[in-house]
UniProtKB/TrEMBL annotation:
Family to which this protein belongs: Belongs to the SAAL1 family.
GO cellular component, one term: nucleoplasm
The organism's place on the tree of life at top rank: Eukaryota
Taxonomic lineage from the root: Eukaryota, Metazoa, Ecdysozoa, Arthropoda, Hexapoda
Keywords: Nucleus
Intracellular or extracellular location(s): Nucleus
Record's protein name: Protein saal1
Taxonomic source organism: Lygus hesperus
UniProt xrefs under InterPro entries: ARM-like (IPR011989), ARM-type_fold (IPR016024), Synovial_Prolif_Regulator (IPR052464)
Amino acid sequence: MDAEEVQKDEHNFNPSVEDVEVEDLEKMKGDAIGNTMYSERWVLQILIKFTKLFDTDFDDELEVEFCSLWDMTVEKDVVDFLMKHDILAIMSCALRPLCRKDNSRLTEIIVGIVGNLCCHEPVRVELAKRTDLVFPLIGLLEDSDPSVLTQLIRLFHCCAWDLVSESVTSTSPHWLEGPINSGQLTNLFAFILKSSTNEELICAVLEFLNTMSSLEVNDKDFSQYFCTPEMISGMTDGWHQLFNSWSPEDEFPNKVLTKAAAHWTTTLSAFAGHEGGRELMYENGTDLGHILMTIARRPLESVDAILISTVTLLEILIKVYFNGSVLKRLLEVLNVLYQNQGDVSDSTSNADNLDAALQDSIESYCTSVFLAVSRPTLNYILSDCSENHVLLFWKTISDRQTEESGERAI
């Protein structure tokens, strides 16, 4: 093969069917990776270039080729092929300072490739055995580049589920427990939430916190590791950064921010699940309460898990934060829920479950308001509500007291 053919082979790694003859397709099948149209030869050439980073300048051409390989790693057949050619060892060498030369873009690509590979359990099992790669990855927590940190946190998130996976067996602690137990991740995440203006990075942190806060291993509640004064403060700052231009009269701007809001409320709910977390939330009750109030002011048809978590958090904060407008709003929502009970034309079991859970959380909130708020203040707030909403409030209190009396009698 002459130089011209090699160059053509390097750049046309994924030719379209329209560009080749039928007989050429037959030849390509022998060079294809699994069921893909990606060329084994081209991928191997790129792997060789990774091994030569020590004495090679990372230019635009290399960036395009490395990014192409990064894109390919979403394919399982490509992942399997790369693992056969010791990709983790190659990435370990590429992460050495003398190879990446403090180039943030190159570091981002390398970590992104490893992150995609780690979407597959066998890769994560192999990664756990390779301290030559694990330690450099943990070391990158000190990196200040938002794009590098985003890919690194996504990689860690892929590995987090192995902390509780029954299929991943090991007598030694998972490598991810080190930076968690030491507080390294907590300090970094709190700093990011408090200071970063990068939406993608903040969302990656919230997603990781959401996952970790739901994990419990050997009676170890990981949410307690992340619930610190700095983290609670960072959660409020992170929210304001993401939603500074959002109007609560509207729905969340897009799916990404809707997901971030869900992660935010779920993480705080996990923090509130233990006494230390609740005390920290009380100390930041006003700031958290204002945010939760804006979430509760979304359109009345916004019945979702975010609103349920929001109402639960508002109830937890009732002794340090109460706003009459929240009660008025939730009574409006409760009234809509009661009205919807008679409309079953297009209901679904999932919607019914959400409605029931939201109704229960609002009724529980009303009961806490009744117990925590002075009667003159409560009467003043209710005097500004419609008669129907006032009756609904007192009906809720009466029903709850009846239920509690029945439980005590039993």
